[in-house]
Every structure is written in C-alpha cells, then in structure tokens.
Design goal:
By secondary structure, the chain is α+β, with helices and mostly antiparallel strands. The chain is built from seven helices and 17 strands. The chain folds into two domains: about 55 residues, Structural Genomics Hypothetical 15.5 Kd Protein In mrcA-pckA Intergenic Region, Chain A (Roll); about 180 residues, Pseudouridine synthase (2-Layer Sandwich), CATH 3.30.2350.10. Bound molecules: uracil.
Length: about 240
Amino acid sequence: MDLIKLLRSQGFGSRNEVKYLIENEFVRINGELEKDWKKSFKNPFGIEISVDEEVFVTQEHLYIVMNKPADYETSHKPKHHLSVFELLPERFLRRNVQAVGRLDVDTTGLLLFSDDGQFIHQVSSGNKRCVKTYEVGAKHPTTSAFFEHLLNGVLLHDDNETVAALSCHSVDECRFSMQIDSGKYHQVKRMVAAASNRVETLHRTAIGQFLLPAELEAGQWRYLNETEVQACLSKAESQTRTE
Ligand code: URA
C-alpha cells in the first residue's frame, strides 16, 4: 500500500487532499519528514505517523470508547441536541465510524465506536450479545420485591415476551446496578417502569468485562487496545441474580 492510500484509509480525505498534505511537509513517519507519496508499505498498520502534528498509529480498524455526556444524541442526524459524533475528530467520520448501539440522550457513560462491522454486530446484535452494566438512579427506594420482579422478568409494553435482568445489586436506597444482555428500545427505563419504579438517571458502566475508564471525563474519548477490545466481547464476570 502506498502512502497516499494509507493516509486515505486513515480518514485524511481525498487523493488530492492527502497529496497536498504530503507535498507540503505535513506528514512525518516515525518522526521523519516524508515527502514521497509513492512510498510503499508491506505492512501498513502499526506505523507511527504524524499529520500536521497529530500523532497516531495506523490501524486497520478503529475501536474507541467515549464517556457520553448527557444532552447528546447517538445519531448522525440529531433532532433536538448535539450529536455524539461532534465529539470525535472529522477523520473518524470519514472512516465511517459508527456508534456500537445507542444510548438515550439523557443516558451517560460507556459508548463504543468502531468501523469494524463484525465487532459492532457482536457487541450489539449478535446471537450472544454482550452483557451491558448500568447504574440506575431510581425515583423510589428499591425493595427486594422490585429486584425479584426485574430478575424474574417483566413484560414490556408492546412486547409479548418477558425480559429479565441478569443481575441487580443495590448501591444505596435509590441506586442500583443492573445487567442486561439484550438491547431493546429504552430497555432499562421500560423494565424499571414495568416493575413500578422510574429511572431518573442512567449511566452505563461496563460492556462485557470492559469498564468505563475512570480517567475519561464526560465528553472525552480514547482508543481501545487489543486487550480492551477482547474484554468488551468477554462474558461479564458478575452475572449473578443476587441483589
Ligand atoms: N436502556 C435505556 O432505557 N436507555 C439507554 O440509553 C440504554 C439502555
């Protein structure tokens, strides 16, 4: 793969835009200025490149974690708020990076993005969907009957099957964590409502065994490494029914 194709694959624009960057000395490889746009790479991934001072390692696929802030829509075409995609660099969008599932506008926490269709499918809609963990702030104090109801399964409005939480753990009087492995529309809010309570705050803390990194502030993102990608796909450890 030549340098032009490589930079295009990393989201740096059209052939002409990339050529411009190379010819005008914006591109460095391993810290060295590179002006030869025909330079060829046997293995094009894992190379440290800087473009106009942005340093990155070339990757076949992107895997990104964001701490989603409230008041952002998980959509390329938001209706009433800003889009989470506005928090990502333009070049990721040129690579067709998608959100891995959706979080509601008022839901915060762990949101993944990728351009790897298989990964997106495995996490969000495969047969063996990954377990998602949420921390829920409820309107009314929780009770053991409430947890039993969620764990035994609730019937959602407009559905003919019950859906059950995999686990529920009380955090304090009105807060609890809950794990689910399906991804129905507004699922946590609807399940909690069906069990006679109401979600006031919702924060996703984990997907599979991958926990939202504590250092990521709301609105911040970072790349996932290979181990973290695998952790997202691994079965969560605490799938117990206990409260
Ligand atoms: N369940 C919900 O109700 N909302 C979300 O954003 C995610 C899960």
